[in-house]
Amino acid sequence: ILKQVVTPLKVVAANSALRLRAILDFEDDDEEKRTAGDEWLFEGPGTYIPRKEVVIEETVRATVIRPNQAIRLRARKETIDRQGVARVTGEEWLVKKTGAYLPGAYEEVVDVVNAYVLTDKKALHMRSLRTFKDDFGVTRKNGEEWLIKMTDTETHIPNVYEEVVGVVNITTLTSRQYCIILDPSDEHGRPQLGRKKLVKGECSFFLLPGERFERGIQNVYVLGEDEGVILRATESFKDTDAPDEKDVERKPGDKWMIRGPAEYVPPAKVEVIMKRTAI
């Protein structure tokens, strides 16, 4: 007695597969033991011969990975991926190799990820979602933020454990400009909270994560012979620009004047109260 009507055999094309599931324990033609619930792929090209112990779950098709692209995969249960790496349930990873990729029986495609193209005027502001080692071999801690510039790589595909916070544009100062940066980072990229840093032009730089301008980009004070600026110290420091050319210890609240002709850039611990012209 026929349990079901006669159906044609399934022809599986290249770059596609049938995801199969065992409903009974059995040993297949290759002497591999299958347990009820096991899943595997029958990959094309080929013709699939059905078995009573097996049901077809779905047809799986390859995803094409183009240059500067990657696919993000997730493990549906513990498995060994196509690179031979053991993956645990829920783990995600990227495949960047260009060409067609056929997900394994316990893999699912989460997304296709496009690369960010970097230039000498744009950088990527990144944030770590957990502790991991990035594409450049640097260990990033959970919540850590950093920049990726064109000097690091021309294109970047974000790792599954990092996110792009935004694109940072370069800041360019002319020879007549300066700026003061609040909470500047040290040489290791750690923010120095509460500190200030004076940057004079001519130069170009990227603001690092956590840094910000105190008052944006400022113009250098160009003083004529009959002009001057009144200054006030906001913190204690040694003034090397004193009018009498001797170092002067300034204390918070101290006031003094710089007279022209001169080009003057106030240090980070000094504020300009006003500019005056002789009567």
Automatic annotation (TrEMBL):
Q: Name one GO cellular component term.
A: ribonucleoprotein complex
Q: Where would you say this protein principally sits, based on its record?
A: cytoplasm
Which parts of the sequence belong to the Major vault protein repeat domain?
10-51, 63-104, 116-158, 170-217, 221-267
Q: Where in the cell is it found?
A: Cytoplasm
- The organism's superkingdom is given as Eukaryota
Q: Where are the MVP repeats?
A: 14-66, 67-119, 120-174, 176-224, 225-279
Keywords in UniProt for this one? Cytoplasm, Ribonucleoprotein
Q: What PANTHER family does the entry give? A: MAJOR VAULT PROTEIN (PTHR14165:SF3)
The protein, known as: Major vault protein
Species of provenance: Mytilus galloprovincialis (Mediterranean mussel)
